[in-house]
Give the backbone structure.
Amino acid sequence: MIRRPPRSTPKPSSAASDVYKRQTKDFDGKDPRIVMPLCDKSGKCFGAVARSILPTAQRYLKMSWSEESGFVYGLDTLKKDKVYVMEGQFDSMFIPNSVALGSMHFDLIKRHLPNDEVVIVLDNEPRSKSNVDQLIKANNKGYSICVWPSHIVDKDINDMVCNGMDPTDIKAIIDGNTYSGLKAKLAIQIYSKA
């Protein structure tokens, strides 16, 4: 089931706006953003991620109005099952039982998903040393990882969907290209040389 996408708003309101103004020197109230709430597993919201619609603005702003640690998007939608950990919030909206971290903070995964079967799904950037290093690190920490096959040319799941791929097919590709241990090391080696 696909999550309902966030709605666009000209600016965050009420408490979010106050936090937003304090955390952003350049905020002038005219920066349209898509605001995505950050909620814990019980559904209590503790912050938000605001993605700019304008290409010239700072892309992401993170806001928090509680002591909750980490900017994990999608915790409130999880079921006990295999959890897909994505980089991007938009990517996580297309794959059931997914969360997004923005960047891979493995301590957040352990804190929020200590007993879940986790699959790390990074963007498709085989030429990025940072991306490949994160895949290696995730594998070394014992996580299963998705290593995108060479026929996938889009950078991320959002791009795949925008270019006509069905989310069900994307999930099947992820599941068919999920590895751990020695198989993951071999897959990463092939991926990074593609």
